[in-house]
Write a structure and sequence with these properties.
Blueprint: H1 6-9, H2 20-27, E1 33-34, H3 46-54, H4 68-78, E2 85-88, H5 90-102, E3 108-112, H6 118-125, E4 129-133, H7 143-153, E5 157-161, H8 173-182, E6 188-192, E7 213-218, E8 231-234, H9 237-246, H10 254-264, H11 267-290, E9 295-296, E10 302-306, H12 310-322, E11 325-326, E12 338-342, H13 346-364
Helix pairs in contact: 3-10, 4-10, 5-6, 7-8, 12-13
C-alpha cells in the first residue's frame, strides 16, 4: 500500500469550508442569498471587468510570473520598493508560503482559538504544532494573552488577523504596535490584513519592514475579486527572496493580475464599496436591536449577531438555509453563540431581515 507521509496520514479527513454550491446540491435549492463567505455583494469595478474581458483572447498565455506591473502599482500605493511585495493566489496561498518557509515540523505556531481557520490548516498540513489563546469574553482578540503565551512558548509564527475574522473587531494602531514589540525577537508576526480596506490607513500599523513581520492583503473583499484569487504580501526583501524559493512561479491567474491592476486604479469604486458596506453594517445593527439581539461592532464587511447559545446559533443558521439564505457561524467560544452575516446589497439585506426574523420565531417554538 502506498501511504502518505505520517504527519499527513494523521490528519483527520475534513472539508475546511463547505461552500454554498455543496449546500445547494444537498438541499435541492437552485439559488441562495450568499451572505456566508464575506464576498463583496457589490461586485468588482467595471474597469476591472472591462480590462479582464479585453484580455480574454490572450488567455492561452501565461501571466507574468513576477507580476511586475501589479507590484509596481502596489509599491506606489504603499510607498515601498516592488522588491518588498510578493503577489500570490489570495491570502490563503501566501499564508501557506509563510508557514512552509518559517515553521519547521514540530515547531509551534500561536493564534487565537477560532480565528480564520486556514492558518491552522497550513500549520497542521506542514507538521507544525498549534498553540491557542481564547478570545476575551467580549469576543475581542486577547493581545495580552497572546503576548504572554508568545513569551512563554517562543513560537516560530504568531498569527493575528486585524481586523479580525470571525469577530469583526479591530485592534487600534497603538495597541497592535505594543503587541508587536512585546513578541520575542525570534517570532514572526504574520499579520492578516484582509479587511484593511475597511479602515483608514492612519488606523493601521505604520509601514514597517522587518524580517519578523509579514503583512497580508487581498483583492477579495473591497475590490470584489474573490473568485479571481489574488492577494499580496508586504515584507522585507530577504523574506521575499525566501518566498521566491518555494512559490509557484505561474500560480497567479493571468486575468487576475490584469483585473487587480485595473481595480487598484479605480479608488472611487473601492470607496463606494466601503461606504455601502458601512450602511449594511448599520442595517444589521438596527435589525439586531429590534429583535433583542446583541452585535459585536465590526470594522469588516460582516457582522456577528449573538443568539444566546451555540445550539441556538446552529438552529437559526440551519433554519435560514431552508429559507434560501446562507450564512456562517464562528466555531469556538465565546463566538460560537453568534451567527455571522456578510454585508449585502439592499435587496439581500431585506431578504436576510425577513428570513432572520422568521427563523428566530421558528427556533423559539418548543415542539
Amino acid at each position: 500500500m502506498i501511504r502518505p507521509a505520517p504527519a499527513i496520514e494523521a490528519i483527520p479527513v475534513t472539508t475546511p469550508f463547505i461552500g454554498p454550491e455543496q449546500l445547494m446540491r444537498e438541499t435541492g435549492q437552485v439559488e441562495l442569498v450568499r451572505l456566508g463567505a464575506n464576498e463583496s455583494a457589490f461586485g468588482p469595478s467595471r474597469k476591472a471587468i472591462e480590462a479582464m474581458n479585453a484580455a480574454l483572447d490572450r488567455l492561452s498565455w501565461y501571466g507574468d510570473p513576477e507580476s511586475l506591473d501589479l507590484r509596481d502599482a502596489l509599491a506606489a500605493k504603499h510607498n515601498c520598493r516592488p522588491e518588498r511585495i510578493v503577489v500570490g493566489a489570495g491570502i490563503d496561498d501566501l499564508m501557506g508560503l509563510a508557514v512552509r518557509a518559517y515553521l519547521a515540523p514540530g515547531e509551534a505556531a500561536l493564534s487565537t482559538l477560532g480565528t480564520y481557520p486556514t492558518f491552522a490548516y497550513h500549520v497542521v498540513g506542514y507538521g507544525g504544532r498549534q498553540i491557542h489563546v481564547s478570545y476575551r469574553n467580549d469576543g475581542r482578540v486577547d493581545c495580552d494573552g497572546l503576548a504572554i503565551a508568545a513569551r512563554s512558548e517562543s513560537p516560530s509564527i504568531v498569527y493575528l488577523a486585524n481586523p479580525d475574522n470571525p469577530s469583526g473587531t479591530f485592534i487600534a494602531r497603538d495597541e497592535i504596535a505594543r503587541f508587536y514589540e512585546s513578541l520575542p525577537r525570534e517570532s514572526l508576526l504574520l499579520l492578516d490584513e484582509a479587511y484593511a480596506d475597511f479602515v483608514g490607513d492612519e488606523e493601521l500599523l505604520p509601514p514597517i519592514f522587518e524580517d519578523r513581520l509579514i503583512r497580508l492583503r487581498t483583492f477579495s473583499k473591497a475590490y470584489g475579486l474573490a473568485g479571481a484569487r489574488i492577494g499580496y504580501a508586504l515584507l522585507t526583501e530577504r523574506n521575499a527572496q525566501t518566498f521566491q524559493k518555494i512559490r509557484l512561479q505561474y500560480g497567479v491567474n493571468r486575468n487576475a493580475q490584469i483585473g487587480a491592476l485595473a481595480a487598484l486604479m479605480d479608488d472611487d469604486f473601492r470607496r463606494y464599496v466601503v461606504e455601502e458596506t458601512a450602511r449594511a453594517r448599520e442595517d444589521y445593527y438596527k435589525l439586531a436591536r429590534s429583535l433583542g439581539c446583541r452585535c459585536i461592532e465590526s470594522r469588516t464587511n460582516f457582522v456577528c449577531i449573538e443568539l444566546e447559545s451555540a445550539a441556538r446559533a446552529v438552529d437559526v443558521m440551519d433554519e435560514l438555509l431552508t429559507r434560501g439564505v446562507w450564512i456562517r457561524k464562528p466555531g469556538a467560544p465565546p463566538l460560537d453563540a453568534y451567527v455571522r452575516v456578510s454585508a449585502g446589497t439592499p435587496d439581500m439585506r431585506a431578504a436576510f431581515s425577513a428570513a432572520f426574523e422568521a427563523a428566530l420565531a421558528a427556533v423559539s417554538v418548543v415542539p
